[in-house]
Amino acid sequence: MMNKKEILNIVTSLEREFDKNAMNSLFSGNGELGCGQFRNIARECAGAECVEEIVLMFDYTVAKADGISWNKFYTKNKTFGKLIKEKMDAIISGSATDEEKLKNLELFFGYMYWQSRIWASKAPKSGNSGGKNNRQGNGRYNQNSGNNRPNNLRNNGSGGRNRNGH
């Protein structure tokens, strides 16, 4: 049975295995790999019935990346997806029951979310990422109005009334 400290050690050891330039590029905010992907996988672990479900879903996630994010960056001749899969395999083999495996994978991906946020904060930003926190040019905010409220909250010239005059 693995404990939380062992799982945390797996997560923190990734930084030593990963090429710094690739790490910075992967988490620079240019859309390559979003930190939230780890949180989503952790949620899937919490709702899965068996570990094979998570393995299949992860393999699908990596396969659909096709040359980007999970498949693009290498560390010691491995893609980031392959490196994470090896860590998953270590957690699975170090856990006895499916319930324990799923719980440990949930912890792993939750810790990966935290760690990826740290990596992202250290990575040089690559300009306009178009992310949800970017208020310029994403269609939700009007740059020219000098008003940073979303379009649906902006006064439309009707004195605050809707189309029906209310």
Would you give an account of this structure?
The structure is a single chain. With 166 residues, this protein is mainly α. It has one domain (4-125). It has six helices and two strands. It has helices at 4-17, 20-26, 36-47, 51-65, 80-93, 98-122; strands at 74-75, 78-79. It has a two-stranded antiparallel ribbon with strand order 1-2. Strand 1 (74-75) and strand 2 form a beta hairpin. Helix 1 crosses helix 6, helix 3 packs antiparallel against helix 6 and helix 4 (51-65) runs antiparallel to helix 5. The protein is globular.
Number of strands: 2
Placed side by side, the strands forming the largest sheet appear as: 1-2
Estimate the helix proportion, in percent: 40-55%
- Tell me the major beta sheet: 2 strands, antiparallel
H/E element string? HHHHEEHH
Give average pLDDT, whole number.
Answer: 75
**How many domain regions?**
1
Q: In percent terms, what proportion of residues is strand?
A: under 5%
For the termini, the CA-CA separation is 63 Å
SS class: mainly alpha
Unreliable runs, pLDDT <50, ≥5 residues? 128-164
Shape: globular
Task: Chart the SSEs and their pairings.
Blueprint (H helix, E strand, L loop, with lengths): L3 H14 L2 H7 L9 H12 L3 H15 L8 E2 L2 E2 H14 L4 H25 L44
Antiparallel strand pairs: 1-2
Helix pairs in contact: 1-6, 3-6, 4-5, 5-6
How would you summarize this macromolecular structure in one to three sentences?
This protein has 166 residues and is mostly helical.
